[in-house]
Amino acid sequence: MVRVMAKEVGPSRVTVNCVAPGPVATELFFAGKSEEAVERFKAANPMGRLGEVGDIAPVVGFLCTDAAEWVNGQ
């Protein structure tokens, strides 16, 4: 869907990208999960940990700047 939309609006210099980081250590993520479930999520990640908001915010911030004008449909 992102690539289709990127092709549709790209000629107008509008970029469309998707950030899908996986499990992130937030209150919403932890709600209702056992410690064992959280450990399974950590083990499934190649880095052996949950994502942090600080891992994602700079990427999203970059995509909102003019420096990212060549990044489209990703």
Automatic annotation (TrEMBL):
GO molecular function: oxidoreductase activity, acting on CH-OH group of donors
Domain of life: Eukaryota
SUPFAM superfamilies hit by this protein: NAD(P)-binding Rossmann-fold domains
Keyword Ribosomal protein: no
InterPro entries in UniProt: NAD(P)-bd_dom_sf, SDR_fam
Keyword Oxidoreductase in annotation: yes
The entry's keywords: Oxidoreductase
Alphabetized Pfam families for the sequence: adh_short_C2 (PF13561)
UniProt record similarity statement: Belongs to the short-chain dehydrogenases/reductases (SDR) family.
Identification of the protein by name: Uncharacterized protein
Organism: Oryza brachyantha
Lineage per the UniProt record: Eukaryota, Viridiplantae, Streptophyta, Embryophyta, Tracheophyta
